[in-house]
Amino acid sequence: xxxxxxxxxxxxxxxxxxxxxxxxxxxxxxxxxxxxxxxxxxxxxxxxxxxxxxxxxxxxxxxxxxxxxxxxxxxxxxxxxxxxxxxxxxxxxxxxxxxxxxxxxxxxxxxxxxxxxxxxxxxxxxxxxxxxxxxxxxxxxxxxxxxxxxxxxxxxxxxxxxxxxxxxxxxxxxxxxxxxxxxx
Length: 184
Description:
Blueprint: H1 8-17, H2 29-39, H3 47-54, H4 104-116, E1 119-126, E2 129-134, E3 143-146, E4 151-153, H5 166-175
Antiparallel strand pairs: 1-2, 2-3, 3-4
Helix pairs in contact: 1-5, 2-3
């Protein structure tokens, strides 16, 4: 998974996956750099080039309710969440089902960081299921599914899917009609 340089084959796959009629106009490089400066991050490739040159959000998936524009949150995100801090590292490196955590009170401080630190929200599949692109920390460039019961990284190396990790792998999987969690 390449996070520093956009590979031409990844960009071609992203362009092919999103219908221009359903896409919001790309932001352009000045707007992307301004967003990065404001939040103290550099977006991982190929997502960075995608929002600058191809599409900043889409009315069709992935995820189910469309790809959320870079500077926005899904409509069902809620107004009572803590302030999002993209420059703070995303705290997880492996799947975590907090619903099954034996010490839920100890888990509480980490929960807000899972939802609100080190990631941008790509969109929702509804019912509190959000897809995040990690922008800081050890999992920079990976896509995670974060729900009300737990968080799971996307990609074959994590055992839940047969697809490549990262934004391009996530989009390719969706465009091919794959089930999100298709590993046996």
